[in-house]
C-alpha cells in the first residue's frame, strides 16, 4: 500500500513539474547590456511591469517607473534596488519632461475584464486605459524617442485579442470583449508605428505575456485570493510573464511591428493587416485624445 501511495505521489509530482514547465512559457536568453539607456515602463510598481523594470535595471538601464500610485512605486523601487543593488530607478508618475531623450518605452500598464466604467475623459475604462492612454503617451514621447536615434524601441504589452468594433457601449457591454478590443488596438497601433518609424530606425513590437498571476483583474480581494489558489498551477509568474517583453527589447533581429509570444514570433488577428481598419483606428484615436 505504501509503495502504491509513493508511486502515486511521485507521478503527481512529475505531472505538476511538467505542467509548470509547460505553462511557464519561453525564456529570454539574450545577454545584451543596456548601460546608459533610458527607459520608461508604465505600471512598473507590480506584476509584469515591476519584473520588467528589475530586469532592465539589472542590465544597466536607467528606468523611469511611470505609475499612478507613487507610494507603491517607491516601495517597488526599494525592492528592486535591494535585489540588484544597481541602476537608478526613479519612481515618478508623469514628470518626464526634463529628460531630453528616451531609448525604450514599455507600455505595460493595463486593466482586464472590469465592470463597465468610464475614465475621467469619458472613455470606456478598458479602451481608455489599455489603448488610448498608451497611444497618447507614445505620440507625445515620439520626438524624444526619435532623438535617441536608431535602435530605440517601443513595446506594447498586449494579449491574444478578439475582433473589432472598437467602441464600447454601456447597453451591450462585455468586459471580456472590451478587453480583447483594447488589446487588439495595441497590436494594430504597434504595426502602424513600425511603418511610420521605419526611416528613423525605431522598432516596435507587441507581446502576449501569457496568462500571468497579477492584479490585472479588478476583483474583490477575497475573490483574487481564491483565483490565485485555483489557477496557480496553470499560470505564469510575473517574472515569466516579463520574458517576452525583455526579449523584444534585447534581441538584435527584432521584426518591427510584429507580434511576439513566448519569446518568438506569433500570428496576430488578421485584422491587424487590414489597412483601412488601421486607418480608422488611428484617426479615431487621434481625435479621441485631442491630437486632431
UniProtKB/TrEMBL annotation:
<dbReference type="Pfam" id="PF00106">
    <property type="entry name" value="adh_short"/>
</dbReference>
<dbReference type="GO" id="GO:0016491">
    <property type="term" value="F:oxidoreductase activity"/>
</dbReference>
<keyword id="KW-0560">Oxidoreductase</keyword>
<protein>
    <submittedName>
        <fullName>Uncharacterized protein</fullName>
    </submittedName>
</protein>
<dbReference type="InterPro" id="IPR036291">
    <property type="entry name" value="NAD(P)-bd_dom_sf"/>
</dbReference>
<dbReference type="InterPro" id="IPR002347">
    <property type="entry name" value="SDR_fam"/>
</dbReference>
